[in-house]
Write a structure and sequence with these properties.
2 copies of one chain form a homodimer. Chain A is mainly α and 206 residues long. The first copy, chain A, has helices spanning 2-26, 33-40, 45-51, 54-78, 83-100, 102-113, 117-142, 153-174, 179-201. Chain A has one domain (55-199): Orthogonal Bundle (Tetracycline Repressor, domain 2), CATH 1.10.357. The first copy, chain A, is 81% helix and 0% strand. In chain A, helix 4 (54-78) packs across helix 6 (102-113). The N and C termini of chain A lie far apart (74 Å). The interface between A and B is large, with 57 and 57 residues. Chain A binds a DNA duplex (18 and 18 nucleotides) through residues 4-5, 7-8, 11, 32-35, 42-50, 53-54.
DNA sequence: GTCTATACTTGGATAGAC
DNA sequence: GTCTATCCAAGTATAGAC
């Protein structure tokens, strides 16, 4: 039956959505099969039928959103841009990540990975994927710039990722939505000065 | 009885230590009263006698280490230092935080705060304390430098804290102890160049 | 202050009816 | 594919003996 299968797919989506929202709003520690089912108004047993166990569901939920985000990143950052334009786009993407809860859920699952080998393996692979992606961005962005002599793409990508995750531990903590905008705001003149100065004098002049 | 009270104090210490180590090694999600008691080889009921509930114990455990770390920070960063010396000391302190597990436990509890108002309130206060401390460091460090025009202490402190927390989500993930050293290593020439260039030309020249 | 025993709750997971 | 019912494991917390 095509109809039955279509309904199964729709249910899967509902479960994935509810799982994501539960982690986002209640944290990993409070994300039980029962809590997810309550939020999505469906039967708790469906989780095990469709996903086997709760952690597998959570991984599927974060992957689902993660793939959409990855696609969006490619779209927005694919075309060439000068540094200022690039920064504006990166900020847009970051805001989307915060608003959608993606970054919160990723941070929650990273923290939970600590005590769960299966989760850890999976999240490690996901984060390494983002690390490689970000490192490529740095390479492309730094290509031909004097800054290339000063910034190692992989290390810089690691720092960006860590900053990203760390912000998303702090944001739910104080509930201050201005934290991230402020950081972008204040980082801007610093970055602009660095780019200008290095371009003018080169990284090795002293 | 002084002896009985002394033993009670010793037990409290054992419980605090076991609680800290359990969060560090097994993650918040696996940190139950039973798991803590198992690790410390004492009776599970003692936790409730001494601390009332598990979360209170965890907060006491992170505070105990946090206060020691704060003291250490003051000692090491109290005396004047040029930028290079300052960076070396900051790195030493950071390595200690990672080795001791302090940063991991803080990150775990921040993540867990998401779903627990009491925990959140407490961790928020602790993090704001560190935020103020770090902002003061920036103020002192930037005083009289041309960089002061480019770096807002509070925003910079927030970024450092986020970076710190984020690193401690990533480190247990891949178990790579070279992650942090590498970051310091690669950041060094960038920082050195920035300091030199800004000192030579000032932040507003273009 | 510490231990044993236990009441109670929540959650993971499955069997079997529909 | 979904629902009801249920079993079992693990955890919180307390009472009461020592």
């Amino acid at each position: 039956m095509l109809k039955a299968s279509a309904q199964g797919t729709a249910t899967r989506e509902r479960i994935l959505e509810a799982a994501f929202e539960t982690v986002r709003r209640e944290g990993y520690a409070n994300t039980s099969a029962r809590a997810i089912a309550r939020r999505g108004s469906f039967n708790q047993a469906l989780i095990f039928y469709h996903f086997g166990e709760v952690n597998q569901l959570l991984l599927a939920a974060v992957d689902r959103v993660g793939e959409a985000r990855r696609k969006r990143y490619r779209e927005v950052l694919g075309s060439p841009a000068d540094p200022l334009e690039f920064a504006a786009r990166a900020r847009l993407l970051y805001d989307e990540d915060v608003d959608s809860g993606h970054s919160t859920v990723v941070a929650e699952l990273c923290a939970a990975s600590s005590g769960n080998p299966v989760l850890r393996e999976h999240m490690l692979a996901r984060m390494e994927s983002w690390l490689g992606f970000t490192a490529e961005l740095f390479k492309r962005f730094l290509g031909g710039s004097p800054l290339a002599a000063l910034i190692e793409p992989k290390a810089a990508a690691g720092a960006v990722l860590a900053l990203y995750l760390g912000m998303d531990l702090l944001i739910p903590l104080d509930g201050d939505p201005r934290r991230a905008p402020d950081l972008f705001h204040h980082a801007h003149p610093l970055a602009a000065t660095l780019v200008t100065l290095v371009a003018a004098r080169g990284p090795h002049s002293a």
